[in-house]
Write a sequence for this structure.
């Protein structure tokens, strides 16, 4: 009798571990959550070309005065396409600027891409060699930052925006507006 | 075009594995089983080589190639990039599964057909699980449009020769245990121990898996040592643990299989281990691929993948362990044996391996358990593992020297003492000599040296003693472990580290060496540019020993920096220099290590591997006569 009961133990232990893993998979957690070293600091400044006009983009003047949503994207990045509908929804929020930063991309292709899927951005800055992304500590694209009126980084999200993150972003913007 | 073909073959793999499941279950049509097994093997190989071709020609219309390759990359890394990413490595996993599946099928004859077809059925089920996972959540042939001009490049830290062959070897290890798992499930289901010597079938597969796992883990360590530039070779990273756990269970399984073979005892125990080894291998995959933990190996953060693998482990594990709980009593035996016999020694070692494995498992998942319950993030580091595992391992190593000399079932103490006397003597003498020379006393260090001399002298004596009938494979494998312990002890106990800021022309000392920072240059590699320091190392007599040239590389494609340590190796120590941050005016941060005996870790692993291969060959010959 005793021996038989012992034989059940591995199954029970195994199932217990599975339940813990399952719980960790479904709860809202991000094991690679990398708190931005720049959080609550001024957004790093940069100057670069704009994608759709010949003018320059100067972050010192452009990222101040209004709440800005800065989104790093590229046409070759599939998750960027996945989050695109949410970016478009975000562009409907009033009194914010949605700045796109086109990361290591081809100008012509980006224009085609924006024609095809729609252009939600107020302005698009070009990060041809990825220099801006390094300064901003970008971990992988897409990546989205919320910058308040004073040019301070308030929030950072690594990875594509989904429904949950979308709601979170709207909430944060409402709070700091 | 080619990618469509590759995808087609991947689907064929699924179809063949389903037909294998179906026909081996019915178990009456050898022709159809044979057709499925061969079809499975051929289509998986074709699919794999087509993906490799896509990498070689840099076809960026395939998302996987685009994400992990670049035209400027050297050919060898274009090829190794095939399995250097999640999707491609799953395809490799399937290929190895198909290979083992084929070898299992080759054992089919009219005496064991029930047993083999049941095993093939289980194997087909496992294959189906992995193929569905690959096709639907991680398809390497997924297309991308518009077609990009060039790829994103391959993580430069993975561009290393040791790492190019590390995954395939490791997978032979992991997947090899699937054969043991299938044999185990088949044995439990069929209650077949009276008719078929199931353990004889299981053993060569376990020996192969274990040997390849050993060398695979060693290569991973070599990579970490040369590429990461942290001066060490093992970091108790979750993924290292994920490979170490099946290795420990594999070690236990391997040894207790010998007991079953010789004395028919411990059968239910062996069946349990055969299930556990593979379950832990898959659990390792889960930990790596689900993104539940982060480490250098975490490829992708995709919860749907995690849930799929978890569900699959759930099915495999619950089914096999419940089967075990209900059937294992048929395999209980009544041949009790003395603790002072060979089987006693083996059982003792088994228990230690299991305890160590349990401790590693606990250390690995403890942070996850704490997070699940309290929401706090904690981490379990090296001190935990070192304090727990080193003391538990020590008795196991002492027994390892005595075990092979003991006889089955007997408990003649005097005989054993007589047998071990010469190696005890050699151990004592050589330890005394070594420490009177080096005079660096450290408790763990002394124990480590004694243990390694104990194992080495023991096995060398056994090798030359023709009276004992012990296989050369086993002697070599044990000898390798002895050498390994020597290297591990030396490099971890007597490592010396020096971190200083150096300007050009500066000098510093480590051990008896003087290191002079001569110059720094910019150099250009095939797909990177680098800053290369030039350090001249002198000995006490002011003779130049070597020029060490550590590099800081920049890979423009991936926008990534790596450090290349520069190492001077001899049989006694490694001199290891890493170039850190810095500039001309303030100087550079330089880390210099004196790592004693490191090379013996690699030599030891290689000797274990060769021993394993010899032993595999012997075990395969045994099957031929079944």
């Amino acid at each position: 009798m005793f021996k038989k009961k012992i034989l059940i133990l591995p199954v029970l232990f195994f199932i217990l571990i599975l339940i813990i893993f399952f719980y960790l998979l479904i709860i809202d957690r991000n094991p690679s959550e990398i708190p931005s070293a720049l959080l609550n600091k001024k957004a790093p400044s940069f100057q670069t070309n704009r994608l759709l006009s010949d003018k320059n983009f100067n972050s010192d003047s452009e990222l101040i005065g209004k709440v800005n949503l800065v989104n790093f994207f590229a046409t070759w990045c599939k998750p960027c396409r996945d989050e695109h509908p949410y970016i478009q929804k975000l562009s409907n929020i009033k009194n914010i600027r949605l700045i796109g930063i086109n990361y290591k991309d081809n100008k012509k292709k980006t224009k085609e891409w924006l024609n095809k899927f729609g252009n939600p951005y107020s302005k698009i800055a070009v990060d041809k060699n990825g220099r801006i992304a390094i300064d901003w500590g970008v971990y992988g694209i897409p990546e989205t930052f919320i910058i308040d009126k004073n040019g301070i980084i308030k929030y950072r999200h690594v990875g594509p925006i989904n429904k949950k993150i979308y709601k979170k972003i709207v909430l944060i913007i409402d709070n700091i507006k | 075009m080619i990618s469509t073909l590759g995808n087609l073959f991947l689907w064929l793999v699924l179809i063949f594995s389903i037909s294998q499941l179906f026909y081996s279950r019915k178990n009456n049509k050898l022709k159809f089983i044979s057709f499925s097994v061969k079809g499975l093997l051929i289509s998986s190989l074709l699919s794999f080589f087509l993906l490799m071709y896509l990498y070689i020609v840099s076809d960026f219309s395939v998302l996987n190639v685009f994400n992990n390759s670049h035209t400027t990359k050297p050919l060898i890394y274009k090829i190794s990039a095939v399995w250097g990413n999640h999707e491609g490595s799953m395809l490799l996993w399937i290929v190895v599964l198909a290979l083992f599946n084929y070898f299992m099928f080759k054992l089919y004859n009219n005496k064991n057909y029930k047993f083999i077809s049941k095993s093939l059925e289980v194997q087909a089920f496992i294959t189906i699980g992995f193929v569905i996972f690959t096709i639907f959540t991680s398809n390497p042939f997924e297309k991308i449009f518009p077609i990009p001009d060039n790829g994103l490049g391959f993580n430069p830290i993975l561009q290393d020769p040791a790492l190019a062959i590390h995954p395939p070897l490791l997978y032979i290890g992991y997947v090899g245990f699937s054969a043991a798992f299938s044999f185990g499930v088949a044995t439990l289901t069929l209650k077949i121990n009276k008719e078929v010597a199931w353990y004889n079938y299981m053993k060569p597969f376990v020996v192969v898996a274990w040997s390849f796992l050993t060398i695979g883990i060693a290569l991973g360590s070599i990579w970490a040592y040369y590429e990461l530039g942290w001066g060490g070779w093992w970091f108790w990273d979750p993924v290292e643990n994920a490979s170490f756990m099946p290795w420990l269970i594999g070690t236990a399984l391997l040894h207790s299989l010998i007991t079953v073979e010789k004395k028919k005892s411990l059968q239910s125990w062996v069946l349990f281990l055969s299930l556990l080894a593979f379950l832990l291998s898959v659990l390792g995959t889960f930990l790596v691929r689900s993104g539940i933990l982060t480490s250098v190996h975490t490829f992708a953060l995709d919860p749907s993948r995690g849930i799929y693998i978890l569900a699959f482990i759930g099915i495999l594990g619950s089914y096999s362990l419940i089967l075990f709980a209900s059937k294992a009593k048929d395999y209980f035996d009544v041949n009790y044996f003395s603790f002072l016999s060979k089987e006693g020694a083996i059982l003792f070692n088994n228990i230690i391996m299991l305890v160590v494995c349990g401790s590693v498992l606990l250390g690995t998942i403890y942070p996850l358990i704490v997070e699940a319950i309290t929401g706090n993030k904690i981490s379990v580091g090296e001190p935990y593992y070192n304090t727990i595992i080193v003391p538990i391992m020590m008795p196991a190593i002492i027994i390892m020297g005595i075990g092979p000399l003991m006889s089955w079932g007997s408990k003649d103490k005097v005989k054993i003492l007589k047998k071990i006397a010469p190696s005890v003597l050699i151990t004592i003498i050589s330890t005394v000599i070594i420490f009177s020379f080096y005079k660096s006393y450290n408790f763990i260090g002394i124990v480590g040296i004694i243990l390694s001399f104990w194992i080495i002298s023991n096995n060398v004596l056994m090798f030359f003693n023709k009276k004992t009938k012990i296989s050369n494979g086993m002697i070599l494998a044990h000898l390798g472990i002895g050498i390994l312990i020597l290297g591990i002890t030396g490099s971890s106990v007597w490592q010396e580290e020096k971190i200083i800021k150096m300007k050009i022309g500066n000098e510093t000392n480590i051990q008896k060496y003087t290191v002079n920072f001569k110059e720094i240059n910019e150099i250009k590699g095939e797909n990177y540019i680098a800053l290369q320091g030039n350090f001249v190392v002198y000995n006490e007599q002011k003779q130049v020993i070597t020029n060490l040239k550590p590099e800081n590389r920049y890979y423009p494609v991936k926008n990534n920096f790596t450090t290349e340590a520069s190492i001077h190796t001899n049989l006694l120590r490694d001199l290891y220099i890493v170039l850190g941050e810095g500039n001309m005016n303030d100087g550079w941060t330089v880390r210099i290590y004196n790592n004693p005996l490191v090379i013996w870790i690699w030599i030891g692993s290689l000797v274990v591997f060769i021993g394993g291969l010899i032993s595999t060959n012997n075990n395969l010959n045994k099957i031929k006569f079944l």
In short: The radius of gyration of chain B is 26 Å. The CA atoms of residues 94 and 317 of chain B lie 19 Å apart. The interface with chain A takes residues 63, 66, 144, 146, 148-149, 152, 272, 276, 279, 286, 290-294, 298, 301, 303, 306-307, 310, 313-314, 317-318, 321-322, 324-326, 328-329, 332, 365, 368-369, 371-372, 559 of chain B (CB under 8 Å).
